[in-house]
Write a structure and sequence with these properties.
- With 361 residues, this protein is an alpha/beta fold.
- The chain has two domains: 2-169, Rossmann fold, CATH 3.40.50; 172-205 and 232-359, Dehydroquinate synthase-like - alpha domain (Dehydroquinate synthase-like, alpha domain, Up-down Bundle).
- 45% of the residues lie in helices and 18% in strands.
Length: 361
């Protein structure tokens, strides 16, 4: 499957998104596409150990294997990678190719936005989380101790290649992290995807061994995200809907010192958003129950651990990068396929909801 994301801001641009079994032919394709330019392949070192054998690239001097753990998603990591590229001769005509999960894509994309004042990059996401979410849309960045993704840039990739075969070696716990974003996507604007998730009895382990199901899930998420980004590339309004579950989710991540995985935190945030929506009279009363049942089917948590108090989570919201001035935009689900932007909900009511989510079993 091929999608084209057409971006109207500034000079018109087209980002091509490919979903299918095409990765082995990627080096030749990119060499032809970027004829005369140097390709530097930035591999997550774990992915390289699993998939690097027999990989046909330009040569070892243009391949960098890097530790893209969440803890290394810092400015210091960007500097280390930039210095390595400089030592290997990367210049203004070079192209970076990120092969790995969300951290690899975020860090490499951010580096591409600033190296030599900006060079092209290609995303080759190898986790479900990166395939359904972070590799599409052009958001790049790193974390600060004060918050997640507080330093970054919008820098669209030239191409995105998604091969579901990469997921064959993905542990179930990592597949689960991507499913949280799939559930979010269904809530935001895809009733058919929601119905699929509710009816797919095999759940998480089953979808991991079903290439057709995975291709459907990935392509559905990419279509929805591409349509939203086309309408609002730099999150001036419409794109905020993609933050469903992330407001509380990011607060949980930060409060945990980023030890709670992103997908698990988003699932907790989705449940909190649904319950808050009911409390505010904006959400269908049956949605929290349906959402929690769906999360359990797909192995996702529905309760916020009690060690993260509502007061601490609300304090963490105050440095969320999605605040505009004094306004915190909270995305609430109305029903599967429909959400609304609810500015500045009452924080005392939010604390009550968070307390209930912490008590959920």
């Amino acid at each position: 499957m091929k999608l084209e994301m057409r971006l109207a801001g500034g000079l018109p641009r087209v980002v091509e998104i490919f979903v299918g079994e095409s990765v082995r032919g990627l080096p030749a394709l990119l060499t032809d596409r970027f004829h005369g330019r140097s390709l530097y392949w930035i591999w997550d070192e774990t992915v390289w150990s699993l998939w690097g054998s027999g990989w046909d690239e330009a040569g070892e001097d243009r391949r960098v294997a890097f530790d893209f753990s969440e803890g290394g998603k810092r400015l210091s990591g960007v500097e280390a990678l930039a210095r390595e590229l400089a030592r290997r001769g990367a210049d203004r005509r070079s192209v970076l190719v990120a092969v790995g999960g969300g951290v690899a894509g975020d860090v490499t994309g951010f580096l591409a936005s600033i190296y030599m004042r900006g060079i092209p990059h290609v995303q080759v996401p190898t986790t479900l989380l990166a395939q359904v979410d972070s590799s599409v849309g052009g958001k790049t960045g790193v974390n600060l101790p004060e918050g997640k993704n507080l330093v970054g840039a919008f820098h669209q990739p030239e191409l995105v290649f998604m091969d579901p075969r990469f997921l064959e070696t993905l542990p179930l716990r990592e597949l689960r992290q991507g499913m949280a974003e799939v559930v979010k996507t269904a809530l935001v604007g895809d009733e058919k995807l929601w119905a699929f998730l509710e009816s797919f009895e095999a759940g998480l382990k089953g979808v991991g061994g079903d290439p057709e199901a995975l291709a459907y899930v990935i392509s559905s998420c990419c279509r929805l995200k591409a349509s939203v980004v086309e309408a609002d590339e730099r999150e001036g309004g419409r794109r905020r809907v993609l933050n469903l579950g992330h407001t509380v989710g990011h607060a949980v991540e930060r409060s945990s010192g980023y030890t709670v995985p992103h997908g698990d935190a988003v699932a907790m945030g989705l449940v909190a958003a649904a319950r808050l929506g009911v409390a505010l009279g904006e959400t269908s009363p049956d949605l929290p129950g349906r959402l929690e049942a769906l999360c359990r089917r797909w192995g996702l948590p529905v309760a916020i651990p009690s060690r993260y108090s509502p007061e601490a989570l609300v304090d963490a919201l105050k440095t969320d990068k999605k605040r505009l001035g004094r306004t915190l935009h909270f995305i609430l689900p109305v029903r599967p396929g429909q959400v609304l932007d609810y500015p500045d909900p009452d924080l005392d009511r939010l604390k009550q909801v968070l307390r209930k989510v912490g008590e959920a079993s």
